[in-house]
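User
Take a look at the entry that follows and flag anything odd:
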Amino acid sequence: MSPTPAKPGGSRVPSRRTVLRGAFTAAVVTGTAGALLPLLDRDPATAARPAPAPGRPGPGSPAEEFAEMYRGREIRGTATVVVPAGASDEDRVAVAAEPVTEIRIDGRPLHVMRRADGTYLSDVRHYESYPTLLETARAAVDELGAARLAPPAAHRM
């Protein structure tokens, strides 16, 4: 390898490899800093927290509750926000985003799942989702017709 040529003033000219290595390193460091800056620059006190939906009651009270006769069937449902003991007020808002749901048709439980977009689907109508628990329960009754829900299976170990 030949030595780096000297300038007429006596200083050395960096090799092409050294210049490219320095430029690549600077680009990687700049890109990484740009990607991490939003995460590191965030103030925890002002960080975005999920807000309760408009009209949703506060933690600990039912978010949605209904009881009605629909097509000769009794349907009851609740979506209750469960807050862990000792949770701070800030944590209560974050927990309020995921209520615990329960629907019963003629006293038998209907398994309901909440989707990521906030809609619900049930075991009876699992190919279609509904915006509220009441609509999910009514759709299950429509699908069941005269049939009854099976009793809940006993889980044994």
Confidence is low (pLDDT under 50) at residues 46-61. The chain is about 30% helix and 20% strand.
